Amino acid sequence: MQYSRPLGRVVVGAGTLLATVLAVRQYQSRRVRQRVDALHRPAATGRDATVTLADVEDLPTPVRRYLQSAIPEGHPLVDTARIEQTGQLRTGDASSAWYPFSATHHVTTAPPGFLWDATVRFAPLVTVSVRDSFRDGEGSAAVSLWGVVPLDGTGTSPELVEAELQRYLAEAVWYPTALLGREGVQWEPVDDRTAEATIECGGVSASLSFSFDGDEVTRVDGERYRRVEDGFERTPWTGHWDEYERRAGLRIPLSGAVVWGLPEGELRAWEGRVTDVEYAR
Description:
By secondary structure, this protein is an alpha+beta fold. It has a single domain (4-280), classed as outer membrane lipoprotein receptor (LolB), chain A, CATH 2.50.20. Helix content is 21%, strand content 50%. It is built from three helices and 13 strands; from the N terminus they run H-H-E-E-E-E-E-E-H-E-E-E-E-E-E-E. The protein has helices spanning 4-40, 61-70, 158-170; strands spanning 80-89, 99-109, 112-123, 126-135, 138-145, 149-154, 185-191, 194-201, 204-213, 216-228, 231-247, 250-262, 265-280. Strands 6-5-4-3-2-1-13-12-11-10-9-8-7 form a 13-stranded antiparallel beta sheet. The model is unreliable at 7-15 and 17-21 (pLDDT under 50).
């Protein structure tokens, strides 16, 4: 019986740790539900609208070819989307370590908005929550330990709003009806494989160059604000898209990567894969 007292302390400690973990998870879930509800509250849902040939006939040729492949005629407009992802990211320079993440990407299209809710595993029992969002014409970015202890955060600013709206536009390949003119995107031809897309929301405009290979978007490019110490700096930014497959009727890329063009060279900062997607109208 000489081990009963230490064993008892271990059991009590384990029980306390388990209770703490469960409480943290419940708190995280509740906060995420509140944010998703706030995102969905102003969103148009149940719109009685479907995609027709008239939606694409006046678009630049590579855009028309892509959208006709991605969206079957008669498909309803996407009102909301939930996209599950896994992948890896890094927060430092090109020599820094990669860390695995899992994320749920919540999207609304009318008006444009999203909440990217990611959990990044830095070490056993050490996770960091990363949340990017664009809602009601405002952007935000927050990082917290276990989703509870704030580590970093950026309130809305003109630079962050534009950067987050650019992200919404770049990732619209996952909810491609949002790239139609009737959803507020204006297209300008560049050449037979490139076109520039522009979207406005809440008085803010964001543009990106889309590159096409046949009926697929392979990359998007633009100057995007990047967080630098206590401010922002316009930096070349590229999103790569690959492995197109049809999901819930829409043809979307299942893998992607993000690259920053820094003065010292390219920084591949994010690699992700779609594991599940759900659309609603």
